[in-house]
Amino acid sequence: MRRLLLLSVLVYLLLILGLASGNGGIIALSIPLVIYLTATLLYAPESLQLQVIRTLSADRVSQGTLVDVRVSITNLGSHLEEVLLEDVVPNALEMIEGIPRALTEMTPGQTILLEYTVRGVRGRHVFEEVKVRASDRLGLFHREASYHAPTQLTVLPHVTWLRRVEIRPLQTRGYAGPVPARIGGSGVDFFGVREYQVGDPMRWINWRLSARHPHTFFANEFEQERIADVGLILDARLRSEVMINGQSLFEHAVHATASLANTFLNDGNRVGLLVYGRFLDWIFPGYGKIQRERILQGLAQAEPGDSMIFDNLDYIPTRFFPVRSQVVLVSPLWEEDLPILIRLKARGYQLLVISPDPVTFEAKTLGSDPTASLAIRITRLERTLLIRKAQHVGIQIVNWQVDKPFDHAIHASLGRRPHWYRAVGLGIRG
After folding, report:
1. Which of 125, 210, 213, 375 has its CA 20 to 30 A from that of 242?
2. Of 389 and 44, more confident
C-alpha cells in the first residue's frame, strides 16, 4: 500500500510540474507511471472469498506418532494473480515433512492443497487459522485475511504395558478380580482351615488335620480375589518439576501415571485420577476402555503449576477416595509430605508411592565437581532416610531412577508380594 501511495504522489507531482512549467517532456515522463498505476488498479485483487477446510489423519495419537495435516483452500471469488497461503502451525508441533505454505495463482473455483506431516509432545494442540495474502504481480496492492478453521490434535502420554502390579487394599469390591480380598472362599492362595461344609469340593478336605479328629472333617480355605478401588494422584505442584537440559521430570511422572492407570483398568479395577497442582482436576472413578480414554485425556492436559492453597498435600480431598481403598501417589516426594501420608495411612488407605528420583535425575548434569559431589551425597542420604521413614510406617515406595525403564523399576519393587501380605486372619470383609 505504501508503494501504491508513493507511485500516485509521484505521478501527480510530475503532472503538476509539467503543466505548471509547460514542459511536455516532464508530462511524458509520467505516462509510463500512469500506465503502471492503471495496470495495478486493474489487476488488483478484489475481496477475498475462500473456503478453508483442514483435516488431520488422526485427532488423538500417542506421543511420538506422526500426523498428516491436509488443508484444502478453494477460491470462491475472482481471479487472484498472486496469493500466499500459510497454515499457522502450533509452536509445540515439530515439522517432519512438507511445507505449510504456498505462493501461487488461483483461478475462480480452483482448489489448492497444503499437505505436511507433524509430530507433537504431550498435550492439546489447536490449529486456529490460515493466513492469506493476495497481491498483484507488480506487488503494489495487496489484501490480507485470516480464515478460522479450528482443529484440535490431542497427543496422549506414552503408556508402557506393565505386568500385573500387586496391590493389597484393606477393602475390595464385590466382583471377582485379581486383588486378594482377605476373605476366605474359592481362590488360589491358602487362607486358613475351617470345618467341612456340605457342598465343599472333596479336594479341599484337609485329610491330615481331619485324621486327628475322628468325628469332624476340616477343609482348606483359600483367599478370594476381587476387584478394588484405585485412586491415582499425580503431583503437579510446581516444586515437583525439575527441568534439566530440556528434559522434564514431570513428564516421567505423567508417563508412570498413564501406565499404572492402564494396567489397573486392564485388571478390571475401578480407577480414578486426581491431578494435584495449580488446581484440582478430578476424573471420577470408572471401569474399562472409556475410563482409560478419560484418564489419558486428562493426563494429556496436565501441567505443573503453582498454588498458594495446594502448595502441600494437606488439601488432598480424601472424600474422593473410598475408605480403605488403594491410593497411588506419583510424586518426587518431599520431607514435608511425609506427615500427610502418615495421616492417610492412619485413616485406612493402603498407600503406594511411585517416586521419580529427582536427585539422580539432576546429579547427572553436575559433573565431577567436589563441592557438587558432596551436595549430591548429602541430598541422596536425606532422600534415603525419608524413604525408610515412610516404609517403616507401612507405606510402599518405588524409588524410580527415570533413566531406567519404568516396568523394570516397578516390578523389581512390587513383582513379589511382601511376606506380610500372605498373613491370614487380617482381612476386613468387603
Report:
1. 125
2. 389
